[in-house]
Design a protein that fits this description.
- The chain is mainly α and about 450 residues long.
- Among the domains are: about 70 residues, Flavocytochrome B2, Chain A, domain 1, CATH 3.10.120; about 190 residues, no CATH class.
- About 50% of the residues lie in helices and about 5% in strands.
- It is built from 18 helices and seven strands.
- The strands form three sheets. A three-stranded antiparallel sheet has the order 1-2-3. Strands 4-5 form a two-stranded parallel ribbon.
- Helix 1 packs parallel to helix 8.
- Bound molecules: protoporphyrin IX containing FE (HEM).
- Protoporphyrin IX containing FE (HEM) binds next to helix 3 and helix 4.
- Keywords: Heme, Iron, Membrane, Metal-binding, Transmembrane, Transmembrane helix.
């Protein structure tokens, strides 16, 4: 199923892959493997220094989970990109233990005069001047999605109506996408809307935030390796039948994604390797409400719920996989990088993303379609409603660094996603950000 290790070319960023990358890779396996290669020696690594943050875990303003999960890892990128409003470097210094013994397993840098740090300083300056109304609007949207989703699910089972079930499924998907805005931030209750999808906040904080967001489209990105037995987004040699077979496999992957996530978690938990907690009971609120208020037999209720979850899963993964990262002109590990040793982290993100012109400019569409994706990657803790207010600053710094955000159509990212699945030839040129025009709806 998975491509064998021989068919996997080395990372063109010279990154060492997590040891079990070629196997079906769960989030806890990824954490274990990273601890082996990050050189953090059971502590927390920032740059080339090691810190013991044990006493700070419970006091961390973003919530304890971030530091619990990242113990034993290199958190350089996580530390840099999650603190825009303040500068916790002074706090960090208090926990210094010793220097790291081995070099970092990533070429990404955060130089004071580089693109990312310059942009971050400019964004930090404008943030206090921005209106808070956009955050309240985001909260209103997501609470409404939750109510509509529950209401439609109950109606669907009451009237045994699959059209209503499709509507409910689509609301489940946009609820989960919008909830993604919240689990990037400090702990808050709205992030748990995400668990209604059968997926789990903890799991996504690892696979999506600590892996995908920080080393996007590299050999270390779990959102590439976790799909790998079925979908291969890196440009590697494959037999044509297998490669094109992915176009047929993809819809099956989308439909079953939510259920597979839960089942894999249960199996991992039973075998003593995975984590489950109270949050894993959240999804059952939905069939319970459907059963109590719908007036149908338990079996009918469960059938309708399963149907709704399958629709939601299809919508979620179709949108997610065609939102921003997969297109033959986007950098994927194996392609020629901009740099393999001194690669500004912000520019690495610009090389691994495209934004969609139909989505940018609409608060609703951005929240429900993983929109403003470049800015979201650069500042993941900022509310999606705030991102659109940052474009003038972003444009100013892009001009200063003579760089560009690639804006394409939604159709381009869908078509590009399917093309990327069958791309076997690595690109021999560094990504050309000027190839696509930057245009933003005002
Ligand atoms: C895996 C590494 C880390 C992650 C993912 C992380 C994540 C976060 C998040 C999501 C927030 C909330 C931000 C917001 O509401 O805008 C936050 C806040 C904060 N974190 Fe961390 N953190 C990490 C490591 C650290 C470390 C090592 C320190 C200091 C030793 C630290 C100090 C703070 C402080 C002071 C705040 C509150 C001020 C602010 O928002 O900048 N964090 N963190």
């Amino acid at each position: 199923m998975a491509p064998n290790a021989d068919s996997m070319p080395p990372s063109t960023l010279k990154m060492k892959p997590p040891a079990r990358r070629q196997k079906l890779h769960t989030v806890d396996m990824w954490l274990e493997d990273k601890r082996e290669i990050d050189g953090a020696e059971g502590l927390w690594r920032v740059g080339d220094k090691l810190y013991d943050l044990t006493d700070f875990i419970k006091r961390h303003p973003g919530g304890p989970e971030w530091l619990e999960l990242s113990k034993g890892l290199d958190i350089t990128e996580a530390f840099e990109v999650h603190h825009v409003r303040s500068n916790p470097e002074e706090i960090l210094k208090k926990y210094y233990v010793r220097d790291a013994r081995i070099p970092r397993n990533a070429p990404f840098t955060f130089k004071e005069d580089g693109f990312y740090k310059t942009l971050k300083r400019e964004v930090a300056k404008v943030l206090p001047t921005l209106p808070k109304q956009s955050i309240r609007t985001t909260n209103f949207f997501i609470d409404s999605f939750f109510c509509i989703f529950i209401f439609l699910s109950i109606l669907a089972v009451t009237y045994w109506n699959f059209i209503l079930g499709i509507l409910a499924g689509n609301f489940l998907a946009i609820l989960a996408i919008a909830a993604h805005n919240y689990f990037h931030q400090k702990d808050n209750y709205r992030m748990y809307y995400f668990n209604l999808s059968l997926m789990q906040v903890r799991e996504w904080r690892i696979s999506h935030i600590l892996s995908h967001h920080l080393h996007t489209n590299t050999i270390d990105d779990l959102e590439i390796s976790a799909w790998q037995p079925f979908l291969q987004y890196l440009p590697i040699k494959e037999k044509p039948l297998r490669r094109y077979g992915q176009w047929l496999a993809a819809p099956i992957i989308w439909v079953t994604g939510f259920h597979r996530s839960y089942i894999t978690r249960v199996l991992e938990y039973i075998s003593g390797r995975g984590y489950m907690g109270k949050g894993d009971l959240i999804p059952f609120i939905v069939p319970l409400a459907m059963y109590i208020f719908g007036g149908q037999a338990l079996v009918s209720t469960l059938i309708m719920w399963t149907f709704i979850v399958c629709v939601g899963s299809t919508h979620f993964f179709f949108v997610g996989l065609h939102a921003a990262h997969h297109h033959p002109d986007i950098f994927h590990d194996g392609d020629t990088p901009r740099s393999e040793s001194d690669y500004d982290w912000g520019l690495s993100q610009m090389d691994a993303v495209m934004d969609r012109k139909e989505i940018t400019g609409s608060h609703f569409l951005v929240l429900t379609n993983f929109g403003d994706h470049a800015l979201h990657h650069l500042f993941p803790t900022l509310d999606h409603g705030t991102l659109e207010l940052l474009y003038p600053t972003f444009e100013k710094v892009m001009t200063q660094f003579d760089t560009n955000l690639r804006m394409v159509s939604q159709l381009d990212t869908i078509y590009g996603g399917f093309q990327q699945l069958v791309r076997v030839q690595p690109s021999t040129c560094a990504p050309d950000l000027k190839k696509y025009k930057y245009e933003r709806k005002l």
